Amino acid sequence: MPGWPTRTASTADLTELGPLLTDACEAALVPSSALLTEAVARGLVRVLEFQGELAGCVVAEMPSSEHVRIVVIAVRAGMRGQGMAKQLLTDLVRDIPRKSDGPPLISALARTDQLAVTRLLLAADFKGTRVIRTDAADGALQIHYQFRSRVEYIDPDARHLVPVTARAQLVESLAPADHAITGLVTLGGEPAFETARFEQDDPATLQSGEAAAGIAFSGSILAAITFLLGFAFSSTRFPDDVRLLLIGATFSTVLSLIIYASASGELARIRSNSFGKIMKWGNVLSEYGGVFPFLISLPVTYAQASGDPWTTMILAVVFSAAIAWYERSEFSIAQRFQRSRTEVTLTVLTALSPTAGAALVTAKTTSWPWTMVLIVTLSARTWLYLFRRGAEADIEERRQWQIRG
Predict the structure, then answer these.
(1) Are 404 and 197 in contact (CB under 8 A)?
(2) pTM here?
(3) For the chain, which has fewer Cβ within 10 Å, the N-terminal or C-terminal residue?
(4) For residue 215, what are the contacts with CB-CB under 8 A and spacing of at least 6?
(5) 106 - beta bridge partners?
(6) Checking DSSP bridges between strand 6-8 and strand 45-50, what pairing results, if any?
């Protein structure tokens, strides 16, 4: 199945969007011209072109900064069954404009007799969470579907099948807050919903554990930096610029400890709901202000203490390779944020720093330029992640839910 490129609609597409929606949708589902115009202006319409004309679109609205509702998904009759609708929906969910610090809730409504729409939503990681009661004359139920933006776990022993026509049973199955529709299957030749119970996390407990882990980690790094700084002050051969780097790392790590403590206080009070922001500051400062300066200083310290150029350079190259691997791994703080060419350049400079610093000390040349470049690099990365990137929660999960074995 080909990958269909989509794009955000512009005002120039309004003349084609109206006829497309009229031809591809029921009259009751076609959004008003005012809603469509506003959705285009807010970047909430995604379109797909084929042979110079619009072949499909998805329209959403944002009633609040924390909620996006899918209004309609339309594909021309002759183009259906090729994955266009799923591509449109997937791309819209990925590129929803962020009007607040956290990702908005993305939802959609589908009647129980709209099996094609239901399959599409479920295939795009939406889950049916509750029944929306309406006065529909045909008796069909409206199911509220919402996109799961984080990993959730299903109880493997709490799943059951409900025929689509068993409306009373479906209402009962979705009544508990931890139950949801996760699939649409065929049962006895008829469509049926697969419902499952999701294990409920305790956000306060999870956040408390995260804050405690941050405090323990920063405390350990501070102890290591303090030990190395003591060695630096006791040695007359230790470069002054590296001492300055370690002093800065000590300050940044202490600051991250204070911020983690502030996160604990925020969690205890639960007032401003800013735990995520505070933790981002602590994570970034502890990594780029504490961990990296400490690690990069180790080969330089060894070069000064041993005086052996061969082992020094081998150690420095190993450190550079390890930092480069870490930066590209899923464990890196950088992987939680969107990357750019500038950031890639800064990442390369960070990885090369141990080798460059050790080489300068081994050659007994001035290492101040290296120190200044490293400080600017780490400061730029800190500024980039704190002020030019969103919350760490913006990272996409590989799987939105899974069964706990």
Answers:
(1) no
(2) 0.59
(3) C
(4) 257, 260, 261, 264
(5) 68
(6) antiparallel
